[in-house]
Write a structure and sequence with these properties.
2 copies of one chain form a homodimer. Chain A has 2 domains: 278 residues, Queuine tRNA-ribosyltransferase-like (TIM Barrel, Alpha-Beta Barrel), CATH 3.20.20.105; 100 residues, no CATH class. Chain A has 406 residues and is of the alpha/beta class.
């Protein structure tokens, strides 16, 4: 993996970059749609391409339980399994173990837990997290970390930081050994080219965040994530901790703020120097009939949209708002008329009668909205106008409550 | 609406035709995917295009209840509402009233019934059925008929035939009057160009079928449907009655066998001279994880597909089997790699974890399979090889139990 820093904003910490992986490039700031079970809910890889997604995230915990890592490996790895040919990031599975598993026992070795599906006993340690992500074949793998809920006592958070640093070192060690092994065995380099990111924990305690960041940087990773945020703390506190932590991470590595967030949160975090984001909001809200627009969230279940003939958002190029350009069938014969755009009234109707197409079209719009927002921020950084863009976006989106992004 | 007969098979009653409507042409034999609530479940209009669908069916009963005909009309009609720019057929709503409504009272005037959604009392007579389908703006409207279950006593079936003929005459009369009115008012002709099909009832009683066909032809319709079949009678009996009825319908009008059926049923019915079909099987089976192939139905939930890396069917051009050709995003920028095909293992996984994408990909494959089957039959009729095609298809599909189609 290679990270190039292409431009920096003069008035904020926002920056433009490019990450090269064995499966292609992605530009930063980047938004990663979340494919929990190896599918971004309702959307196909070609939808994701059309939406402008350049990198996709998938969850190790869920894939390990179903269909099982062995199945994904047998099919040729996660790219082939999910049909996504571009850059792919997997998490370590730790967050889901801590948030979903009905029983878990944490020791210095790792976490013993029961599956939330069938109660089967499993064990996830740093070595297992690396091995599973190798088998999945992600372009970016994440270290195993210990997540604490919010609020957390300082000594609980401190213990989790200690353990997260130890686990990160073990992940780094086994990951490097395997990379060296596959390089010396003459493998094609795809396995060896997998990047590994460290994850800074420390809850809202700045000294813990600082120590964790310093220790991880000393170990040395291809990129650094800010974890343990967006778990219930107030937004302003989240942004303060993200700002503090981002400032302590090396400038020549991508920074990833895990699980964030709303469009407004993302714009403000980009101003803090964050490069990568993931969030289920575009698809989860989509399935609830909520559409993101530059003017905020449209709740399409509402009676006011009953006979609203307008698309979700004028000027949006997604299939929901602009119809499809496809007039040919799969065997190449052409029909004259192209499929039409969809009204808010139609999407509301689909949501109300549980027609999957409606949930899918709103999800597609939302992922397109997020990806276009990232593209607009990249353009603004490139052109030296990020501050103006962010102010205008936040004011219009209705989230500029703190008077800007700084 | 205009129907051109382009070729006829020498050894069977199969025929090739073309129907021209205000929203474009469709070729016959044609398969119509079913968009019950104004959406073909999980699929977008551009998916339907890619699958090779040329005409789509939607259900008047469901649309009348939700969102209401007034909403569809306010948005600009059903084509615009559902985003489908091509030919569109609506049923009269009668079949659903007879099969879904929890209470119904049939008189010579029409049917009083309660909604299966909220119990609201409604009335559907021939005049209402025509008016609603006018408001929806379908290219092909269907008369209101009385459907009887199978088995039905002869006198029950006879009474339903009498009533269906009377209702058909009233539909014809009000439909023609409105067409004449809009023509004399100088309207653009779209409303006036809506076709109206009669529906032959009569259960499995040949004399009733014969009388119903004769009376409907005397009234005069743009096309003729064979209704009241595929309601529980044995397949061989269905095909006998369809053959008997089709032979009594005029050669210069399209013939539509309602609600049929499996790929094998359709091939055998095409041999009997049927031109149009609709069925929920491709999408319903798709949502249950069942995929149609030339070798029969694949039940993808099965453990045997756990690590099966093959696509559903080699050579199928659908997005599930062949990946997508789309490498550009919606704003035109191109990524190098095209999205990949999907393995049976992946589709099985999606079905097992309820990932909508899996249901959608299998539905897309199934509709593509049906539409390609129609295209292959049209080619075979054109080339004078329909008999050989049908024998070979039925033998391979495993449904050639009666020794062929004749």
């Amino acid at each position: 993996m290679r990270f190039e820093l292409l431009a920096s904003d003069a008035a904020s910490s926002a920056r433009l970059g490019r990450v090269s992986t064995a499966h292609g490039e992605f530009e930063t700031p980047a938004f990663m749609p979340v494919g929990t079970h190896g599918a971004v809910k309702t959307l196909s890889p070609s939808d994701l391409r059309a939406a402008g997604a350049q990198i996709v995230l998938s969850n190790t915990y869920h894939l390990s339980l179903r269909p099982g890592t062995d199945v994904v490996k047998a099919i040729g790895g996660l790219h082939r399994f999910m049909g996504w040919p571009g850059p792919l990031l997997t998490d370590s599975g730790g967050y889901q173990v801590f948030s979903l598993a009905p029983m878990r026992k944490v020791t210095d070795d790792g976490v013993e837990f029961r599956s939330h599906i069938d109660g089967a006993l499993s064990f996830l340690g740093p070595e297992e997290a690396v091995r599973i992500q190798r088998d999945l074949g992600a372009d970016v793998a994440m270290v195993l970390d210990e997540c604490v809920p919010y609020p957390a006592d300082r000594d609980i958070a401190c213990q989790a930081v200690d353990r997260s640093i130890q686990w990160a070192a073990r992940c780094r060690s086994v990951h490097s050994a395997r990379a060296a092994h596959s390089a010396s065995a003459g493998h094609s380099g795809h396995e060896g080219s997998q990047a590994l990111f460290g994850i800074v924990q420390g809850s809202v305690y700045e000294d813990l965040r600082e120590r964790c960041a310093r220790e991880l940087v000393a170990i040395g990773f291809d990129g650094y994530a800010i974890g343990g945020l967006s778990v219930g703390e107030p937004i302003e506190r989240m942004l303060e901790v993200a700002a503090f932590t981002a400032a302590r991470l090396p400038a020549d590595r991508p920074r990833y703020l895990m699980g964030v967030g709303t469009p407004a949160d993302i714009v403000r975090a980009v101003a803090l120097g964050v490069d990568m984001f993931d969030c289920v909001m575009p698809t989860r809200n989509g399935r609830n009939g909520q559409a993101f627009t530059s003017d905020g969230l449209l709740r399409l279940r509402g009676a006011r949209y009953r006979d609203d003939a307008r698309p979700i958002e004028d000027g949006c190029p997604c299939e929901a708002c602009a119809g499809s350009e496809r007039v040919k069938n799969s065997e190449g014969s052409s029909n004259a008329k192209r499929p039409l755009a969809f009204s808010r009234a139609y999407l509301r109707h689909c949501v109300n009668v549980n027609e999957i197409l409606g949930l899918r079209l709103i999800s597609l719009h939302n992922v397109t909205f997020y990806c276009r927002l990232m593209a607009r921020m990249r353009d603004a950084i490139r052109q030296g106008s990020f501050g103006a863009f962010a102010d205008e976006f936040l004011a219009r989106y209705g989230a500029g409550r703190s008077g800007g992004f700084g």
